[in-house]
Amino acid sequence: MGASSTLAQDLVQRAADMIPVLREREAETRRNGQVNDQTIQEFVDAGFYKVLQPKAYGGYELSPKVYVDIARQLALGCMASAWVYGVVAVHNWQMALFDDRAAQDVWGADNSVRISSSYMPVGKVERVEGGYRLSGRWAFSSGSHHCDWVILGANVTREDGTPGVEPYNFLIPRADYQILKNWDVMGLQGTGSNDILVEGAFVPEHRVIREFDMFRMECPGHAVNKSALYRIPFAQVFNRTVSTTSLSTLQRALDTFIEATREKRTTYTGQRIAGDSAIQETIAEVKLTLDDLDMRLNRDLAEMVDRAERNDWPLERRAELGASTTSTVSRCVTAIDKIMLYSGGKAIYRGNVVQNAFLDIHTARAHVANNPVPYFRNLGAMSFGFPNDCLDL
Questions:
Q1: Is 137 helix (H, G, I), strand (E, B) or coil?
Q2: Phi, psi for 388 (deg, rounded to 5)
Q3: pLDDT of the residue at 37
Q4: 385: region left, alpha or beta (phi > 0 left; psi from -120 to 50 alpha)
Q5: Which residue from 23, 92, 165, 387 has the highest number of Cβ atoms inside 10 Å of its Cβ?
Q6: Are 209 and 168 in contact (CB under 8 A)?
Q7: pLDDT surpasses 70 at 106
Q8: In the predicted model, what is the mean pLDDT of residues 68-74?
Q9: How many CB atoms lie within 10 A of CB 214?
Q10: pLDDT band at residue 1 using 50, 70 and 90 as cut-offs
Q11: Rounded Cα distance, 137 and 198, in Å
Q12: pLDDT in tens, 123-155
């Protein structure tokens, strides 16, 4: 067994070992609207943020499957904590796509510095000498409290003179933005996905990247980061960041429901609720959903690694892989709704595990990357010979 395999197993086991303490802190995490600093430090100490980070900056450059498996273990303890881990850690992978001078800016003095994001292209951009002037307000920057940099999206007028705009990502240091605390939501409260405010920050050219370059996998960072890990389309990695934690949350809800229902009896007749055939069928359906999604995820991750090593990314297969991950949370929504339906009156009390899962999974579904409709339409259209119209593949 290679050293990387041993390290991968150790990292996933460390995440599994954290499940009890994450459950102990879960209620506090919801109340505070943030993962606490101690938890984040424990993630740092465990090496979780190094999984996808370039080796040149102290990272491990391990497979995306290791990164996903860590997030899935953490989500068995607290989905919000796992979400923050996944979203923040994926930026260590994206940094390998930027000009290497950007990575030096972020990690030159401390390779444990973390980055948050909000990719929605709502910023106002002005081209100036040596870079850009950026302003705007962005929502949904998960884990921003724990980060010293942020990646923000904005549309920029095309450089070739053709009409229209295209999306760019801008890397901004903490001194150039404010975090506006407005995260007051029904689920995933602990992600602290607050707004980011920027007022006329200068962003040098080397801290800017075109989304189209990430789509084509022709990025400035490829000049120094040669690993196949960084030859995976951006959306194929990022979209799995916001979809896979729902699997573990659904699994935890199912396990909790089965245990709570096993000997539970009806109030009036005293019959075992577990004897209800509708409930039995629901359990079977949810188990099969989890099995299907687990097999698909592992298949997709293995294929992504293989394609990266061969640099073989046919567009229609990318569309299929995109549709695969973006449909995950919708299927989890259907499954958790069925569990919630049979969970009885006690499930409406705050802190109930099934209710928490119900709210968290529905909140995850609201993320734009978990809306399968545009991905399905694009894949279906491509099947009929229409051109791809999606950069998020």
A1: strand
A2: -65, 140
A3: 98
A4: left
A5: 92
A6: yes
A7: yes
A8: 98
A9: 21
A10: very low
A11: 6
A12: 999 999 999 999 999 999 999 999 999 999 999
Q: Where does 78-149 have alpha helices with state H? A: 79-94, 100-107
Residues 269 and 116: their CA atoms lie apart, in Å, by: 54
- Sequence-distant (6+) residues with CB within 8 A of 143 are 35, 84, 87, 88, 114, 116, 191, 192, 193
Tokens of 126: 């002005």
Would you say 129 and 120 are in contact if contact means Cβ atoms under 8 Å apart?
no
Q: Is 357 helix (H, G, I), strand (E, B) or coil?
A: helix
Tokens of 78: 């607290």
From the number of C-beta atoms within 10 Å of its C-beta (0-12, 13-18, 19+), residue 391 rates as middle
**235 has pLDDT over 60:** yes
Structure tokens at 81: 């904590």
Q: Give the per-residue pLDDT at 144.
A: 98
Q: Can you give the pLDDT at residue 273? A: 86
Q: What are the structure tokens assigned to 10, written together?
A: 């150790």
Query: Residue 120: which residues within 8 A CB-CB, separation 6 or more?
Result: 138, 139, 140, 153, 368
Token pair listed for 167: 């999306």
| Amino acid in the structure at residue 111 | N
Q: Which residues contact 6 (CB under 8 A, 6 or more apart)?
A: none
Beta-carbon-side half-sphere exposure of residue 199 (alpha carbons within 13 Å)? 3
Per-residue pLDDT of 325-373, as tens digits, reads 999 999 999 999 999 999 998 999 999 999 999 999 999 999 999 999 9
Fill in the DSSP letter of residue 59: -
pLDDT of residue 2: 60
Judge residue 300's burial from the number of C-beta atoms within 10 Å of its C-beta, 0-12 exposed, 13-18 middle, 19 or more buried. buried
Report the distance separating Cα 178 and Cα 123, nearest Å: 14
What's the CA dihedral at 84, 85, 87, 92 to 10 degrees? 140
User: From CA 82, how far away is CA 69, in angstroms rounded?
Assistant: 11
301-312 average pLDDT score: 97
